[in-house]
Amino acid sequence: MTNRLIAPMLLILAALLTAVPAMSAEVDPERMRNLEKELRCLVCQNQSIADSHADLAADLRKELERLMREGKTDDEIRAWMVERYGDFVLYRPPFKPMTWALWLGPFVLLGLGAIIIYRVTTTSRKSDSEAAAVDPEKLKAALGRGKDA
Amino acid sequence: MNKLIWSLPFLLIVALILLLGRGLELDPREVDSPLINKPAPRFESTTLQTGEPTSLDDILGEVTLLNVWASWCVACRQEHPLINQLARSGVVRIVGLNYKDERVNGLRWLEQHGDPYAWSVVDGDGRIGIDYGVYGVPETFVIDAKGQIRAKRIGPVTPDYISGELIPLIQQLKQENTPSS
Amino acid sequence: MLTPGMGATGHLALAFALILTATQTLSAGVGLWRKNAALVNLASQTAVALFIVIACAFAVLVAAFVQSDFSILYVANNSNTQLPLAYRVAATWGGHEGSLLLWALMLAGWNGAVALTLRSRALDVSAGVLATLGAIGFGFLLFMLGTSNPFERHFPAQMEGRDLNPLLQDPGLIFHPPMLYMGYVGFSVAFAFAVTALLQGRMDAAWIRWVRPWTNAAWVFLTFGIALGSWWAYNELGWGGWWFWDPVENASFMPWLIGTALIHSLAVTEKRGHLASWTILLAIAAFSLSLLGTFLVRSGVLVSVHAFASDPSRGVFILAFLAATVGISLLLFALRGHKVQMATGPLNFLSKEGFLLVNNLLLTVAAASVLLGTLYPLIVDAMGLAKPSVGPPWFNASFVPVMLPAVVLCAAGFSANWRHASLRDIGKDLLRLLPAALAAGGGVILLSRGTFTVPWLLGLSCGALLILATFWSLFSHWRKGLSMQRGWLGMHLAHLGLGIFTIGVGAVSIADTERDIPLGPGETATLAGHEWTLVRLGHLEGPNYVADQATLEVRREGRLIATLKPEKRLYHSQPNNPMAESAVDVGLVRDLYVSLGEPLGAGRWSLRVYYKPFIRWIWAGAVLMGLGGLLALSDKRYYRRPRPVPAANTESVTA
Predict the structure, then answer these.
(1) What is the phi/psi pair of residue B123, to 5°?
(2) Is the minimum CB–CB distance between A97 and chain C shorter than 8 Å?
(3) Which of A88, B6, C158, C631 has the smallest CB count inside 10 Å?
């Protein structure tokens, strides 16, 4: 008789086990830490809520845990914070028109620099013979300096 | 063109100096609220004095100042006389939000320093404060009759702020309320 | 024995120093204008006298701290009779006014040293440099005496001082600021040289050779100073971080990046004469960034954990000083920069100098990015819009893609020749080392206990490639029997350090793990294959604090590896602000790190436990870079007496 009970009991157990994650999401400590590091503690001088000892930071960490248990995604959690505190609460500035100059700036500068280098340098070998046609005075002075080096 | 390139570093430094000069006048810790011109977040709690249930609905219908305060907050004591004065003048209704405080301490503080609030909402764990984006006490919100946040003051109010910005705004909001016939 | 006049003596010394800087500037300036050697000599002697006077003022302040003379406000605000002696001395530069005096001391030191070595050089160089340095000193002392006098006195004197901020009561305070300031201020020498070259409208190789060791020296100090700061933050702040892209950290990093570019640019200009005006611009930029850093730290314009003083009124003075110094030099550059050319022929892209030019581009863009990220919130705020916050995620995303190619470029650069490099030779050399580099990268991943990803392997391999390329270059040079000069060896040591640094950063950024663990006595938790057991909790009393102390034992596979004792201290001067003192077990390929969090009641505490792979390589790499710089600047070729240059080439008269 016990054999016949085992199967349905196992089935119920399996159902329960799969249902539990759906009811309340597990709080992955690594994911939580990563999110905490991306959020600024507004009361402190430039610390994340992961590192700060302030009361507000502790409160926000609790809220973070609550939101994770409710199954919210990372993006939803960030949006929740921004809704209340504005973009300033994110350590990673969002990519929007106001921050285009910020995100693209370095690469624009690289591009400009590359263009300047292209204009300033040459790649031809024959440039060497052109350089050989130098002022003899300058050459003597250059040789004199060369001995010093 | 060549002249421009050689002058570029100089022009950049002039721009930088001007920027930094302007920066000296700004407060880097001040954060603009994203809730301006948005509906005030809903909440449900009890009043400090009587323990009756209260919610955002009680605030709707009239221009209101929501002043966030706490008994442990030193700067609140600094601005409180001005809040008292504002309440006595009858210019606007003031509702308090008792943030992260013990009931007993809050009531005692009001007894000692005066109670300018029509009522105070209890926010023991700070959840309501977080919904309102509160990060320092005191803070003051200007909520219009329809329940939209129109202004937020971070830090204690000053006489200049009250006469220069707060009262004109309140008057403007009140006029919005009563359509001209 | 307290001398009531100590504060007054110090104040008087500073006032006298102000007069001396004015004297130096005027006599050097007029001497340059009138080609008067005697006046320039006077400026030289004034510089030495200036150092002695400021050193005396500094000694007075130190003595005031040691003797706890609280009639001096600055001492009263930053010290305490119970403070241990070493920290009483270090507290001299623990606050705003004292740190400015340290700045002034360094400035006077470099100034005096330059004056002594310039004696045998051309008149116009000495005069120009001394005049510039004198003017800088004058402005600085004026600022100090006007707004931040460390000898401000108050009678009657207080009975007890407020104590030094507990965060600063660490060996790091003794060494970090002095090193850092030596670096910042040291760049003033290259700056003065650049201004002189612009004033003269020319430059020659002898001048370049003269300025290189000074620049190297400043760079070495700055490297050590930044590394010390990072190491100090790691040990002291309690959450295992070593770099936060905090505005004040960025303020020290920008001059370092530009300083590095300057060192490389100087090499090109000395060897081939190219990039002369670019070198001048970099020299101006390096010191300007030092001054900008001083402004940012003390004006309250940016939010930072380090900010010294948030005083906008002082900020105005520093800004004016910055505007005058940098504005005038860049105006000079705009007007006369084009005159300072030394090139003899075009610059070939595929050559060592071409590679160094690209190196300069990458370093400059990196510095500009750091500046952009640091100031961006302010820029948006100034425009009246809601400001974004720019934190480590942005800085890492912008900095790494720019600097990682630079690391590879260093490896390639060893095989590049001046004038004409053979792409084939370079490719051959790199490909020979590539398999070993990848294997080494894989080894690091294994030892870090991290999850393998291809980008991570590539990043680590860049560092490994640089290390291998350095050794290969040394080896093939030795095999050919060529002489190895100190400059050349120093360069190799520095690049080796960079490779090691890259591996350290790569490992710890990706693979470091941490956990918040609640533990009671006798309980164990696991992290990174180690078992952490809380053995007991205790209580102890220090000279000016009381503390809770936990004893932890760390085991791996049952064997005891380390015993750690983190503390939570309550300093008498700050009874509401407990400070965590973390405990670290140092290792070659990993650090074990633990700090006390909050008490949970019933003898249980929440602990934060970290496993940090290869983190020591970060500071080891930085130290090697600094040592490489030191070795390079000791190269004899900088110190040989210069041959007399034929009269036709110069209108100067040697003093």
Answers:
(1) -135, 70
(2) no
(3) C158
